[in-house]
Amino acid sequence: MTRTDSVILDLDDSRIVIPKDRRLRKVYLEFSSRCNLSCPMCFRESWTEPQGDMDWALMLKLVSCLHEFPDLETVHFLGIGEPFCNPLLFEAVRVLKSARLRVRITTNATMLDAAAAEALVAAGVDVVDLSVEAENVPWPGRANSMETLVSAADELFRAKKKKCSTLPDTRIALVVTRSNLSRIPDIIHALRGKGINAASVSNLLPTDIKADANRLYPVSLEEEASIRSKLYTQIQHAGIRPELPRFALSTERHCAFVRSESCFTRWDGLISPCLRLSHGYREVVLGREKEVVPWFFGDIKRQTLAEIWDDPGYVSFRWRLRRALYASCLDCNLLRSCEYAKTTESDCWGDSPGCSDCLWDRNLIRCP
């Protein structure tokens, strides 16, 4: 094996030879960082960076890079923004489907009317996740989230029936909190018979101290078993497949983004390893405020995706995270006085970016 086929990583007194690979299976694509809503719990509320849509030339550049990854399966339109805000969404879907890729779209459902539903079916979209806020309050831009969700589910169900199609596979993405847990049965009941096949449940990642009081985790293992059992039963009895997070804090860590061989493409072409590190914002980790510093391994405006994927820093990053070889702030008794824990810029092991208190790797926070 030559040096060009591998990356050398010095770890303590060992030298690790990491073969380069092209195992990328999933591309998260932020087709727009704009949104038609202003939900107060969203990461976007603390942004200071510009917002925009991916332009068509950049989209085509990305697609031209994908043939270098023989295991690539899915392009998932998911980011901090709403993909329907980009008027080129359906054109992008058609290009990706012509490349024989699975296409998945996560949407807030407010722009999913009858015409959009029929267009999704006609374009052959494989999966649509309808994201719903289950709080019993009217968010700015959405007077009634349940009416919006049920209407969108109905439109997709009718459009599929009209075309005699089983696609898209329609799912919901639901954030569960202390205040909305009791409303979950009503939400699931309202969706019964609407063609919803799965429910991806996540916990809340607070963006301010006030919202932090509404998180449900961490609980004891006994409480977790009770919560998971109730949610599983409520969702499954409606004929919907439950996909649940943890509610107790586990020492076991698995980076879902790295394990699923994924990368995140921002609207402006910057490549980040995951959703969490794709933008700068504030988050609250178990009562402690933290600054998330965006981290990128390349830019497809100037490089190919294969060049970025093969970058030695990115290769080493993925190798370490697959083996959970990084600091663990949540298991450290120095956490409250540690300067490293205030941002994601680096950790006390000298690794950048710092993934040391990521709640995704504890399976408390989940993406659809």
Describe the structure concisely:
With 368 residues, this protein is of the alpha/beta class. Helices cover 26% and strands 19% of the residues.
Helical stretch count? 10
Structural class: alpha/beta
Distance between the termini: 38 Å
Flag low-confidence runs.
Answer: none
Radius of gyration, in angstroms, nearest whole number: 21 Å
**How do the strands line up in the largest sheet?**
9-8-7-6-5-4-3-10-11-14
Helix content: 25-40%
How many strands, what sense, and barrel or not for the largest sheet?
10 strands, mixed
Q: What is the residue-mean pLDDT, rounded to a whole number?
A: 92
- The dominant shape is globular
Order of helices and strands: EEEHEHEHEHEHEHHEHEEEEEHH
Q: Kindly report the oligomeric state of this protein.
A: single chain
